[in-house]
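Deliverable D2.4 — example input (structure tokens):
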């Protein structure tokens, strides 16, 4: 896990400094004297050789110091801690909503295999997979917020503010979940233990929601964890569209202003979150499926 996070941090650090422009020049008005631009470089630390900057950055990380924002002079960690709860809340609501929808629709499609509902679900899955989140978010804003004025377009203004961002993320997340639930249930319903349960006279709803879910839950939990990357990536776009005060918007604003420490902090938090959640998913998968054993190494 540490190697993955270190690799991401290293890659982002050097890409920003090699491929990006000079943040000191951007922070000064056009035509500013070179001496004043150089003073800005010294103040933000970009006057030093890149390897020296990297070593200083790593030393700061060992102390929990993510650096100081180029704009505003606030510690990056403080800014991220302010934004993290908003991103976390959006992700949790999206996962709960998407998982619930996927279970209901996926089970229904499996029970109605090769019928109208099942075919309609497969059509939805195909269209949803091909729908860009950025385009969908803009359409939802224009129709439900601007034209109908049913929902707020931007910012966090109460529970109704979650509707459009969550729907935008859910449309990207649910197709894969629905397809997995449908496939798992189709296999489960033909298993011997399900046939035996039906032969013993167990009610159909109990067969589906007890025996079926027991088998379908592990791959669904694993997939939700793997889809965290999609949620994190999608949240950057969604937070930008809906002006959601989370880590995604914070990072994209930093990209526009070449605020290196803030970009690095946002990417670092996303990488750590992705690695930790996937580790927890492995533990959950092992707990749900006794046939799985974690590698002791």
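Example output (designed residues):
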């Amino acid at each position: 896990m540490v190697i993955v996070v270190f690799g991401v941090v290293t890659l982002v650090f050097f890409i920003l400094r090699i491929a990006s422009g000079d943040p000191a020049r951007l922070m000064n008005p056009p035509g500013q004297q070179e001496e004043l631009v150089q003073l800005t470089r010294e103040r933000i630390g970009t006057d030093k050789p890149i390897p020296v900057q990297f070593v200083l950055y790593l030393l700061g990380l060992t102390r929990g110091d993510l650096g100081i924002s180029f704009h505003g002079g606030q510690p990056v960690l403080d800014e991220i801690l302010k934004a993290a709860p908003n991103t976390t809340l959006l992700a949790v609501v999206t996962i709960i909503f998407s998982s619930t929808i996927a279970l209901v629709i996926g089970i229904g499609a499996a029970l109605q295999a090769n019928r109208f509902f099942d075919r309609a679900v497969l059509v939805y899955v195909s269209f949803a997979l091909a729908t860009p989140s950025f385009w969908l978010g803009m359409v939802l804003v224009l129709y439900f917020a601007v034209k109908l004025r049913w929902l707020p377009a931007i910012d966090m203004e109460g529970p109704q503010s979650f509707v459009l961002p969550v729907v935008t993320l859910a449309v990207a997340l649910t197709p894969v979940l629905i397809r997995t639930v449908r496939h798992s249930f189709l296999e489960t319903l033909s298993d011997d233990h399900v046939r035996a349960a039906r032969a013993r006279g167990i009610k159909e709803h109990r067969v589906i929601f007890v025996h079926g879910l027991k088998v379908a839950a592990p791959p669904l939990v694993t997939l939700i964890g793997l889809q965290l990357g999609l949620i994190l990536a999608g949240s950057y776009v969604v937070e930008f569209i809906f002006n959601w005060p989370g880590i995604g918007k914070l990072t994209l604003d930093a990209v526009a202003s070449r605020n290196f420490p803030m970009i690095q902090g946002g990417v670092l938090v996303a990488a750590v979150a992705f690695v930790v959640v996937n580790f927890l998913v492995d533990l959950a998968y092992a707990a749900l499926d006794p046939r799985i054993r974690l590698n002791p190494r």
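Residues 76-111 form the longest helix (36 residues).
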